[in-house]
Amino acid sequence: MNRSYFVIGCFILSLILLSSCKLGESSNPPDVKTTFTPKGISAESKTKYNINLKMNSSEMFEVKANIDIINDSKDTWNELVFYLIPNIFTEMGRGTLTIQEIKIDGENAKYTLEEDNLKIQLESGLVSKGERSVEFSYKFTLPENGLRFTKNNGNLYLAQFYPMLATYRNHSWNKEDYRLQGETYHTGFSDFHVTYQLPEGYTLVSTSPNDSYPSRDKGTLQASQVKEFFIAILQNPSAIEKEVNQTNIRVFGFDEDTEFLKEITEIAADVLTYFEKTIGQYPYDQIDIVLDGMSMEYPGIVTAHSIDNTALPPDLLKKTVVHELAHQWFYGIISNDPYHEAWLDEGFAEFATYLYAYSRPNRNVPYEELYRMIAGLESMPVNLSLDEYGGRTSYIYLKSTVMLWKLFEQRGGLKEAEEFLKTYYDYYKFKEVNSKEFIRFTKYYFNLKDDSAFKEWLQLNSGVGRTSTLYTVLF
Ligand SMILES: [Zn+2]
Questions:
Q1: Do 36 and 49 fall within a single domain?
Q2: DSSP 3-state assignment of 316?
Q3: What distance in angstroms lies between residue 296's CA and the mean position of ligand 1's atoms?
Q4: Residues with beta carbon < 5 A to ion ligand 1?
Q5: Most buried of 184, 290, 371, 427, CB within 10 angstroms?
Q6: pLDDT at 26
């Protein structure tokens, strides 16, 4: 996700990334404990999505989605709660959505749909470990000016186009209202089986590692253990493919010249190599970079072109590609709730972006410049929910990144940051973390006796599913 002040931050950061400054921290050997047991946060459900998608020549989509759900909580559920984000745009008068039917285990289901809240009543409760199969039939057209779920430049972007089961925690559904800023949806890891049919003249790229370019007009896509499934249906892209460490990198461009596409491909190859070496393996066979639309991360595929509809200048676009690729590790593989804990993917993605830049020969971490950048961001911590910032997401993006650097300044610097990320990834891949767990891990990793390293930037009593509370200034 990206915001306008994030752009300003990025410009400043790009300048810093281009300059090398202060040297010097001691490089203490990592003190990795083998007895630490990570505690991931459960989605409290297990889900399998079977989706059949048909697009006709008028760009109308027909979807049949079958979702198998296991209740992995201890409670009996009387309703199932989904995000149905296409309805947001319908309610705004953009695009169309018609639900034909919703069935549970073959029987018509009662449901309500308001904004993106789709609630399905369960006539007989779903007990712990019980299973239900929900079938959805619906049609939609994409809005021209949606958000992620949108049509742009003749291309069709199907983000969050299917009903996505919300996470369940603390005995209730963890479903917040949709917002146009930030990612307000949170889902568990799931398996996807998608069949599709397209009219002539389009090619499809997606979260699936098994789609090929150009795509056939119909086919089957699969993805395992991903948070969501994104599909881009493109018209006449230019494409470059390059295999690095058994991962196929594909870059899709539209107005860019071939040299620029090659440059983006080389950056992506270099970053992928660095992140795999430094953080851990990218677990899928393919990564797609689509240079169009709003810059955004999805599992196995990212878009990078604009922020708030303004095309990025080339240097910032390159930096954005690195940021979006970093999200594959922080969001895609280590999960977090992007509504209540957005800093855990945005801050870490930015941190990894800087780490990549600062790790180059003759570069150092410019701590003083980093601290100057967060002057004025003292009043709030970085781990509040999206609705508590009133749009001031520089806390989520910028302050969190700089405070992560601060954690390492006196504790081994860049080399230790690399070791830390490797250990963090090893412990938390395919798990969800929250601030509390991050603190627990970090205290263990550095053998910290108290919480003083976090007081300046993290609200220490935060936890999953907490309701919005106004933050009282503690410092
Ligand atoms: Zn981001």
A1: no
A2: helix
A3: 7
A4: 346, 349
A5: 290
A6: 38
